[in-house]
What does this fold into?
Amino acid sequence: MTPKEIIDKMMAEDKMSQWLGIEILNYDPGSVSVRMTVRAEMVNGFNVTHGGITYSLADSALAFSANSHGIRSMSIETSISHLKSVHVDDVLTVKTTQLTLTRKTGVYMMDVTNQKNELVAHFKGTVYRSDKVWD
Amino acid sequence: MTPKEIIDKMMAEDKMSQWLGIEILNYDPGSVSVRMTVRAEMVNGFNVTHGGITYSLADSALAFSANSHGIRSMSIETSISHLKSVHVDDVLTVKTTQLTLTRKTGVYMMDVTNQKNELVAHFKGTVYRSDKVWD
Amino acid sequence: MTPKEIIDKMMAEDKMSQWLGIEILNYDPGSVSVRMTVRAEMVNGFNVTHGGITYSLADSALAFSANSHGIRSMSIETSISHLKSVHVDDVLTVKTTQLTLTRKTGVYMMDVTNQKNELVAHFKGTVYRSDKVWD
Amino acid sequence: MTPKEIIDKMMAEDKMSQWLGIEILNYDPGSVSVRMTVRAEMVNGFNVTHGGITYSLADSALAFSANSHGIRSMSIETSISHLKSVHVDDVLTVKTTQLTLTRKTGVYMMDVTNQKNELVAHFKGTVYRSDKVWD
It folds into this structure.
């Protein structure tokens, strides 16, 4: 399967990414970028966007990027720094960088920016690459 | 305001925690525990629960725990290890431990278990405590 | 090789752990605990113990714990929260908990305490388990 | 005090950074870069460089970068991904990026490369900025 076929198939079953309204911006192996717009139902008790929204968006970008190589891969450890408040109607874009890819692991870095191109979060994810290929 | 008043007020405005179906299990200052049941709309492209769900649940527990002391506090850095797959209908419980609390920062650890009491994720969160009190 | 044989062999070649003065407290598979005493040459520019000392101690405990199962394993992602200042002559003890162990990965948590049994740091480490056994 | 005065003063008391052989490459506020050469006494039980060496180097860069603004700042949470083995005689360079700086916190990212310009580790650090100025 091509990166596009894999990611489209994942996206078709990924109910959470659909609820978030995630749009795939490119299908580059190892560095898939994504975008979404924050909705009113995504805020926390401070009326700013819940940290879980930004995390989920970056975590989906991680899943798409890691799996784009054709090997079923799953996240084992992730961290996120929340750098700037995100508000309703903000458009969040995740730009992905693959830091390393070995036979069994991969490490990715995601920069999350808003529509003013301000960095709102920095995400890092480590994945385990299984023995199963996408077919 | 008491811990209960603060957390109830946060929860009343926290649309994301409402969508998740989060239930507050206790109002102990610094170690609020929470619970939720995973729904079909919360899965990812592998038909297991999206990592963002577990993260969001733990992040809400972090917000409630940190703010329960009466000082407005926000998450600055968090990490989560996904240890075991989570499935639809699983009941997730977060048990919170406050590792440290200083004048301006706090560090918390969250153990996320399923209905079989298996550890499915381990979360760590650092918060910044602002100058504003809850009143 | 037994856990003890593996760890003693690692320790014999581990110049850094020798420099730190690390003592092995137990050889329990998956949860090796260690201890060291901070020396004057280990301080940073604030005259408190350099964060790298506490990290190195916990990272050695991670290596010993992960390899004790007989499979050559290496750290891929680690994080540490520095919770309390550490001073010269403090005796640091690391207590290790294995959060999960799968065929190819393991996740460990290390609590670092001082001689007053105060928690000075919390460390989390993820390892990759190779195909090579200790023999 | 200027960034250079602050960092030189820190370095003069920082016994650990002296032991590592850290060299300051620039004094740019918020993004100090450093370099060191790995010695035989810095290896672990696999005869590769102990993860604590790379961590310590990056953590020193964090301390210098955060304090260069003139406010006494200390690390509260850090993480490091070990991406590639480091060997004796490797020359490690840390390039620092300041992701955010608020009144009380700062977040920094450190890329650690070897003499072949290969990325060997990725470090992220969050600091707390105290009320004390360097004078």
In short: Residues 3-133 of chain D form a domain with the Thiol Ester Dehydrase; Chain A fold (CATH 3.10.129.10). The first helix of chain D runs from residue 3 to 13. Chain D has a mean pLDDT of 96. The CA atoms of residues 88 and 111 of chain D lie 19 Å apart.
